[in-house]
Design a protein that fits this description.
Layout: H1 4-17, H2 19-43, H3 48-58, H4 60-74, H5 79-84, H6 86-91, H7 97-116, H8 118-128, H9 135-162, H10 166-189, H11 196-203, H12 207-214, H13 222-245
C-alpha cells in the first residue's frame, strides 16, 4: 500500500510530540495504577491475576477509559488537517487514501497499545515481589484491549473525516462507542420483549460480550479476534470512502 509506512511514522511521531497525547498517557498510567492497587487490596484479597484482568477489561474502569481515549486521540487527525488544508496536500501527494486512513489508525492503536502495556508492567512488579501472574491471561487480555482500541480508533477516524470540528468528532465517536457498549446490555436485559431479528442484530455488535467471551479467560478464540478485525476493517473502509468523497467536493 503506497505511502503507508510514511503516514504511520508521521502520525506516530506527531502523537508523541503532542502535549495532549503525553497528558493522556501520564493520566492513564496513574489511573491504571490506582485501580490495580484498589482491586488488589480491596476486591480480590491479593489475587494478582484477578486484579490484572479487572484492570484489562474486567471492570468499568477499563471501559470508561477506552470509551474516551480513542476519540480524544483521533479527533484531530483528519478534521484539523482538513481545516488547515494539510489534508488536501496529503491527498494530492503520491499516497493512497487507504494508506492515509490505515496509517493514522495504526498510529493511534500503537499508542494505545503502549498505554495498556503498563498493566503487564504491574505484573512484572508483583512477580519480582514473589507473586507471579498467569502471563497467558495477561497476554490475551492485553491483546483484547488493543483490538478494542483499534475498533474505537477507527470509529474516531471515521467521525473525524465526517466533521470539520475536532470536538464534535470526538463527541460523536464517544456517543457511538457508548451505543456499541450499552445497547447489547439493554438487549440482553430486554430479551423477552425485543424481537428475535433485533436481538440477533444487537449480538452482532456486542463488543463487551465478544471481549469477555475469550480474551479474559486466557483462551484465544479466533472467532472473537475476527469479530474485532472485521468490524475495524469495515469502519476503516467507510472512512476511506469518506476521504475519497472529498476529492469531488
Amino acid at each position: 500500500m503506497r505511502g503507508l509506512f510514511a503516514i504511520y511514522r508521521r502520525e506516530l511521531a506527531g502523537l508523541f510530540l503532542a502535549p495532549l497525547a503525553w497528558i493522556l498517557f501520564c493520566l492513564t498510567l496513574l489511573y491504571n495504577a490506582f485501580w490495580f492497587l484498589h482491586f488488589l487490596e480491596k476486591q480480590t484479597g491479593g489475587e494478582v491475576n484477578t486484579a490484572l484482568t479487572l484492570v484489562l477489561g474486567g471492570s468499568w474502569s477499563f471501559w470508561i477509559l477506552t470509551l474516551f481515549l480513542p476519540p480524544l486521540l483521533t479527533m484531530r487527525m483528519i478534521s484539523e488537517e482538513s481545516r488547515t488544508g494539510m489534508l488536501e496536500f496529503i491527498l494530492t501527494s503520491p499516497v493512497s487514501d487507504a494508506a492515509v486512513i490505515l496509517g493514522k489508525a495504526l498510529a493511534a492503536t500503537t499508542f494505545l497499545g503502549l498505554v495498556w502495556l503498563s498493566v503487564p508492567l504491574y505484573g512484572l512488579c508483583v512477580q519480582w515481589l514473589g507473586a507471579p501472574p498467569d502471563w497467558g491471561i495477561v497476554a490475551t487480555s492485553w491483546l483484547g484491549a488493543v483490538l478494542v482500541c483499534a475498533l474505537f480508533s477507527s470509529i474516531g477516524l471515521a467521525f473525524s473525516a465526517l466533521s470539520g470540528t475536532p470536538l464534535i468528532a470526538a463527541f460523536l465517536a464517544l456517543v457511538f462507542n457508548c451505543i456499541l457498549i450499552f445497547l447489547p446490555l439493554f438487549g440482553r436485559s430486554a430479551r423477552g420483549l425485543a424481537e428475535k431479528p433485533l436481538l440477533w442484530t444487537i449480538e452482532k455488535v456486542d463488543v463487551l460480550g465478544h471481549f469477555q467471551g475469550s480474551f479474559q479467560t486466557g483462551a484465544l478464540d479466533s472467532a472473537h479476534v475476527v469479530f474485532f478485525l472485521a468490524w475495524t476493517a469495515a469502519v476503516l473502509f467507510l472512512a476511506v470512502r469518506i476521504i475519497e468523497s472529498r476529492r469531488w467536493l
